[in-house]
Amino acid sequence: MTVGRFAPSPSGRMHLGNLFAALLAWCAVRREDGEMVLRMEDLDPQRTSPHFADLIRRDLERFGLDWDREVPRQSSRTPAYDAAFERLEGMGLIYPCYCSRAQVHAASAPHLGQSEFVYPGTCRSLTSSQRAAQSRKPCWRIRVPGEEWTVRDRLQGTYTELLSRDCGDFVLRRADGVYAYQLAVVVDDADNGVTQVVRGRDLLASTPRQMYLFALLGKSAPEYCHVPLLLAPDGRRLSKRDGDLDLGALLTRFSPETIIGVLAFSAGLLDRSKPISASELASVFDWRKVRREDIILTL
Ligand code: GLU
Fold first, then answer.
1. Which domains, from first to last, does the chain contain?
2. pLDDT greater than 60 at residue 45
């Protein structure tokens, strides 16, 4: 059975781009009589709150996007992440890194356009006395092999990275103890039995890292479908900062069915924009119609 998931970060109210990915994830699962899981990705206590988690649940419901089970939120899953971390440590793959940029965005999903850099391996082979001489608290990185990992994405085709060249050893745990998105998402997708991940195209570049972790942990990776991003008319990516496009503001002007119709038309699923419910859309959903390219949204 197909098991899909909503994996929102409760760091703000959903915007249209989040809703778009959630709508496609939901339709793909419901079309196949699969199961939908909701998981709150609240790894970073400073950026997320239960208030936003409630708003996200309510918004999903309002658009008719239901779920069959809500799994434990990431902030309550530290023991599971500890176990995976220890397992990788036991394989000799993890080392402390004292570099100052180490904390940068390590716990959040690195979206397209955020500065991602290839870690040059500075702390890879420090001796124990060199480690003892450091004053900074370290973050923890995993060694990556000189191996290519290829994603066979349902929408985007194949995407390959040579991890050692394109990514470098990446952070699994920040210096403040917060686990990184890359580790948490893999442990959770495996433990939640997720077989199909539908999410924004900005996370395609994280997928080879996640496939590497799945393999090390002895689990199979899910199927991936990275959907287009929604862009503002000036070509910028929509974000939670676009106040006028947050769902609260939009719902004062349009019905949920009207908004779903606009998104479905933009995706290529309808010939014209007309009000439609999520369940009606699921009955005509077809991946072959869904566009791969990013979408400029006009409301
Ligand atoms: N929680 C992540 C986000 O909202 C999504 C992670 C994922 O789908 O893998 O950006």
1. 3-75+192-207+216-296 (3.40.50.620), 79-181 (3.90.800.10)
2. yes
